[in-house]
Amino acid sequence: MALKDSGPIVCDDGRARPPWAASDPLLRAYYDTEWGMPVRDERGMFERVCLEGFQVGLSWRVVLAKRDALRGAFYGFDPDSVAGMGSTEHLLGDASLIRNRAKLNAVVKNARATVALRAEGTHLGEFVWGFKPDTTPAPLTMEDVPTSSPESKRLAAELKKRGFSFVGPVTMYALMESTGVIDTHLVGSWRRGCSGVWA
């Protein structure tokens, strides 16, 4: 996806972006408007946890292209509605979705774990933000961007203890990046610092 030793690329609109968001219109729009912006609510975080799980072994572009269909299949990623679903077997025949039985089942399992988390006096958004580190990376190139951290490892372990699936340390690091918990925008890219969380 990204080129080794690759820094920000100045695009045709004069804005610098990482290589993965420099040319593809879908990825560019996602980078420009969503990636790295704070997601703190329960439903929003639940959707992101599920989408990051769908990405395992795939490109993020594939997930984005199927996001609307996944939202349709899973009640807009409303945790309560999804938690009440039975089998996801019927979804395996839908070519508009990512037809991986384990990943589809994980959405229902994760919804039930999300609902259960409320009994701890918190919700999924607050829970994930509880693992925000004291500092954030300042990568100059894609090679400088970590793939996991002590915090993502702890987050993964705590979510697994609570019954979540497809929440490994690398996947949870990607979640923390995409939801603004950390800022791994390349230094020099036009979105660096856009979340307002990190100065």
Description:
With 199 residues, this protein is an all-alpha fold. It has a domain of 137 residues: Endonuclease III, domain 1 (Orthogonal Bundle). It has eight helices and two strands, in the order E-E-H-H-H-H-H-H-H-H. The protein has a two-stranded antiparallel sheet. A hairpin with a 5-residue loop joins strand 1 and strand 2. Helix 7 packs across helix 8. The chain is globular and about 50 Å long. The two termini are 28 Å apart.
What fold name stands as the CATH topology of the domain at 42-178? Endonuclease III, domain 1
Elements, N to C (H/E):
EEHHHHHHHH
Report the mean per-residue pLDDT as an integer: 96
Kindly state the percentage of residues in helix.
40-55%
Main β-sheet, in a few words? 2 strands, antiparallel
Give me the CATH architecture of the domain at 42-178, please. Orthogonal Bundle
Can you identify the CATH superfamily of the domain at 42-178? Hypothetical protein, domain 2
How do the strands line up in the largest sheet?
1-2
What distance separates the N and C termini?
28 Å
Low-pLDDT stretches are none
Number of E-state strands: 2
Strand % is under 5%
Number of helical regions? 8
Shape: globular
How large, in whole angstroms, is the Cα Rg?
Answer: 17 Å
Assign the structural class, choosing from mainly alpha, mainly beta, alpha/beta, alpha+beta, or little secondary structure.
mainly alpha
Q: Please report the first level of CATH classification, the CATH class of the domain at 42-178.
A: Mainly Alpha
| Quaternary structure classification | single chain
